[in-house]
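Input record (one chain):
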Amino acid sequence: MSKHVFLTGPPGVGKTTLIQKVTQALKSSGVPIDGFYTQEVREGGRRTGFDVVTLSGNRGPLSRVSPSSDSSASRREYRVGQYVVDLVSFEQLVLPMLRNVNHGGDTEKRICVIDEIGKMELFSQAFIQAVRQTLAGSGTVVLGTIPIPKGKPLDLVEEIRSRKDVKVFTVSKENRNSILQDILAAVESCRK
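The corresponding structure, as predicted from the sequence alone:
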C-alpha cells in the first residue's frame, strides 16, 4: 500500500508542471496541501538559476549561475555544474514548512509537495533529515519529484525509489499529457 507518490524523469520533461496541475486539482477540492516547487529563472532567454517557490507564495533563490572567473570561491560554496547553491535561502524557506507539515494535528492526511529532491537540495543535511521525518510520519502524504538515476547515485533519492510505501511514476514526453489522472488517483488513495 503506497503512502507517498513521486515523479521521476529526465530534466525538462514536465515533472514540475504535473506537480503544479495536481496541486491545483487537490487545492480546488479542499485538500490540505503545503510544500514547494523549483522554478527556472530566465534572463534574456537563458537560464540563470532556480528559485524555490512555496505553495504559500514565498519565493527565494535556490541557485544562480556563478561568474566563472570568481576568485572568492575559496569560501565554502555548494556547486552543481555552473550553478552556486544558496543553501541559507533554501533552508529558510523550506525547513519551517517541512517541520510545520510534520506537526499538523489534522485528522485528515495532509499533502506535502517536495519538488525536487535533487543534487542542489541534498547539500542540506537538515533538509535530508526533514524529508526522512516527513516520509516516516503517518499524517502526511508526500508528492515529490526525484531525478532519474544518472552518474553517482544520490543516497536519499535511491532510498526513496526503493521504499515499499512509495509509488513512482516515470514521466516521459509520451505520457506527460495523459498521466495526470493516474497521479491524482494515486495521491487520493494514499490519503485513505
